[in-house]
Design goal:
Largest sheet: 24 strands, parallel
Number of helices: 4
Mean pLDDT: 94
Helix content: 10-25%
Number of strands: 32
Strand content: over 45%
Structural class: mainly beta
């Protein structure tokens, strides 16, 4: 009899332990620039992850509640496994949004869940239409210390509806982006999968100390303007370990458009891009411009893999842009199946309006490329400056390009540029004067680190509640 009682007690205790385990919502660790003192789950605020119930109000209520802890150690909002339909919501300072590996944010296709906001001041108008623009799915302004991360959870922009409206000319306002953070500092966006954005995917703008890390970004290669990551008038930005398949540039570096960008006068500078894989058959791995009127300076890109992509690093500008692109450094780039390896265009066009200054000429100088390999290439280089405004200080060294069987018979086309080359195959144009093999290390790449490389991550944790 005593043995039976003991066995029953053991079974009860075991079941109790298993029951307590089952009630633990979630607990995990992750790396972030800041850890948080307070935690909550979207489910605590009525969130329903069934893929059809709108969670816009749940996200808004959760973040509004958690914002009270801004000065008390900050807060984190956990999005559990499930499909969470939502419209736009705003972030707060000292805040982390964390998506479970099986969480999917589904962007609402109801335009009423996308408020319209003013155009960016450095652009003067929307990119798709004159006037306002739909707010981004995840949006923040005038913030500090914000983390958007996860266990590789997914944000699905459900962009097909927006792409169709764009093609049919039915847009009333510019399409929303998936993540936009503006006028902010100390930002981390990491360890997420972003798919089918209505337009640009990640857009930090007018911000500083920005870390974008470990993103997978996927869109159909024919989808319109689905740029991967667009740092825009930002200082100290680090983009690393990302995989991007895009209908537009994988990374587009920007700083404002024509007279609006010139007047706003905020450059993008101190940008690091490393360990990037890009597939974009109709656009660039890294584009500098075309909206570069506030200036772009000190961009360092290395360890880049491009596959079936139109061009490597492309500079896009035009008469009327003003501004500058200078001190650009690229090394360690491997390219497979490319239309162009090098492409600089001084005739890009595409103006905000007719108010641009035709005397505002861009300054393009000190552009350095070295240690690069490309195969199955249609054209080695198409480098075109502006008549009366040559692009200078271009340096290309230790580059081997294998042309495609149907590649251009004349692999280089150069006008209104000046620079040097060394150890480049096939032989560049005369405007890139060959310095001989002894100058193969002529092109510069700074060895000192930038302040953004000092951004450190710490190990943070989330402990789910016992219900």
């Amino acid at each position: 009899m005593a043995m039976v009682v003991l066995l029953v007690l053991v079974l009860l205790c075991t079941n109790g332990v298993e029951s307590r385990k089952a009630k633990n919502v979630d607990s995990f660790e992750y790396s972030a620039i800041s850890c948080r003192a307070q935690s909550a789950s979207l489910a605590d605020f009525g969130g329903v992850g069934d893929g059809t119930t709108s969670n816009t109000k749940a996200f808004q209520a959760a973040i509004q509640h958690l914002s009270q802890y801004d000065s008390q150690g900050g807060s984190q909002l956990f999005v559990p496994a499930g499909k969470w339909l939502t419209g736009s919501f705003n972030l707060t300072s000292h805040f982390t949004l964390y998506l479970h590996k099986d969480a999917v944010l589904l962007a609402s296709q109801d335009e009423n869940e996308w408020p319209v906001i003013d155009p960016l001041p450095s652009y003067g108008r929307g990119r798709d239409t004159a006037g306002g623009r739909f707010i981004s799915l995840i949006f923040g302004t005038n913030l500090t210390d914000v983390v958007v991360t996860g266990g590789n959870g997914t944000i699905d922009g459900q962009g097909e509806l927006w792409w169709q409206k764009f093609h049919k000319g039915e847009l009333k306002y510019t399409r929303p982006y998936l993540i936009e953070i503006m006028f902010s500092e100390n930002i981390q966006i990491s360890n997420l999968t972003l798919v089918n954005s209505p337009s640009w995917n990640v857009h930090p703008v007018y911000s500083s100390n920005v870390l974008v890390q470990g993103l997978t970004i996927l869109a159909p290669v024919t989808s319109p303007n689905t740029d991967g990551i667009n740092p825009d008038s930002c200082t100290n930005t680090r983009i690393e370990d990302c995989y991007i398949v895009s209908g537009d540039d994988c990374i587009a570096v920007k700083s404002g458009w024509d007279e609006y960008g010139i007047a706003f006068g905020m450059p993008t500078k101190a940008l690091v891009i490393r360990r990037l894989t890009c597939i974009s058959p109709f656009s660039a791995v890294i584009a500098l411009g075309s909206e570069m009127s506030g200036g772009i300076q000190d961009v360092r890109a290395e360890d880049i893999l491009a596959i079936n992509t139109e061009s490597g690093v492309r500079i896009k500008t035009a008469v009327g842009r003003g501004g500058f692109v200078k001190d650009i450094y690229v090394r360690g780039m491997t390219m497979k199946t490319m239309k162009y390896v090098f492409w600089i265009a001084g005739d890009y066009g595409s103006h905000a309006d007719d108010g641009y200054d035709p005397n505002a000429l861009p300054v393009i100088q000190n552009i350095n490329y070295h240690d690069m390999v490309a195969e199955n290439v249609t054209m080695a280089g198409k480098l075109g400056g502006i008549t009366g405004d040559p692009f200078t200080g271009i340096c290309i060294s230790n580059v081997t390009i294998t042309m495609a069987k149907k590649g251009k018979k004349v692999p280089w086309n150069c006008t209104d540029i000046a620079g040097i080359s060394s150890g480049v195959v096939p032989q560049p144009c005369e405007l890139l004067a060959d310095q001989g093999p002894e100058k193969i290390g002529a092109c510069n790449f700074p060895e000192e680190s930038l302040p953004v490389d000092n951004m450190q991550l710490q190990l943070c944790s989330y402990r789910g509640k016992y219900l």
